[in-house]
Amino acid sequence: MADSTATKKDGIWETIKTVFWALVIAGVFRTLFFQPFWIPSGSMKDTLLIGDFLFVNKMAYGYSAHSCPFSMCPISGRLLGSDPERGDVVVFRHPTRGVDFIKRVIGLPGDTVQMRQGRLWLNGEAVPTEPAGDFVEIKEKQGPQGLIPRCVNDPVPEGGECIKQRFTETLPGGVSHDVLNIVDGWVADDTPVFTVPEGQYFFMGDNRDNSEDSRFNPVTGGLGFVPAEFLIGRADRIMFSSAGRSLLYFWTWRSDRFFKAVE
């Protein structure tokens, strides 16, 4: 009887140790290699929707001052890793506001970037676009913040179909992705020519008329160029997605977006 009790206690203790080390390993794995990220806004529609949950590959560009968990990390620059490429969807730390953003790399160091009448120009040439059909969603509160989408066909009553014009944009190098248009003549549809400095990047959201990005001057609270040391990692795959106000609302889960690649 005593042996049986001792064996049971040993089994419980082994289970506790197994769970403990599993949690430690999971924590280290998360800290070193991946960071979870919830999409809080609609600035990257239709590539990313409010409520998408993804893991950020922190090793894609190497460790930076804002992604490395150790005191050995560089104050500036990166350790190991490759450089971002045009079209990458990247999570980074806002250089002046200290919050995490997710946008698409549009301009590399040395590039010139400009918007003319809502169309993207890179290095003096218009980036090819093709119509890709309308993006249609229900006009209703989205995510924990209860954000209401803007629509080309506004005013739209709650519960109605909210339409945005959709185009496929192909960047130099061949990366294609969808971009959305809500209104012509928006404040950032026409910009000066931006020349991306060495060691920095120009980011834009795919939902072009609903994105606070590098088109806006950091002096007035915008993003501006993003130095390499503020990059956290690349978004590669959506793991889970919920259209509701809470993760617990299982009836709002978007099963078609589970394990969906970010393109």
Q: Tell me the β content.
A: 25-35%
Secondary structure tally: strands? 18
CATH superfamily of the largest domain: Umud Fragment, subunit A
End-to-end distance: 62 Å
Overall pLDDT level: 86
Order of helices and strands: HEEEEEEEEEEEEEEEEEE
CATH class of the largest domain: Mainly Beta
Structural category is mainly beta
Unreliable spans are 18-31
Using only CA atoms, what is the Rg?
22 Å
Q: What share of residues is helical?
A: 10-25%
Examine the coordinates and then state which fold CATH places here, giving the name of the CATH topology of the largest domain: Umud Fragment, subunit A
Q: Biggest sheet: strands, sense, closure? A: 8 strands, antiparallel
Give the tally of structural domains: 2
Question: What is the level-2 CATH architecture name of the largest domain?
Answer: Ribbon
Judging from the principal axes of the Cα atoms, what is the shape?
globular
Please tally the helical runs, counting DSSP H or I stretches of 4 or more residues.
1
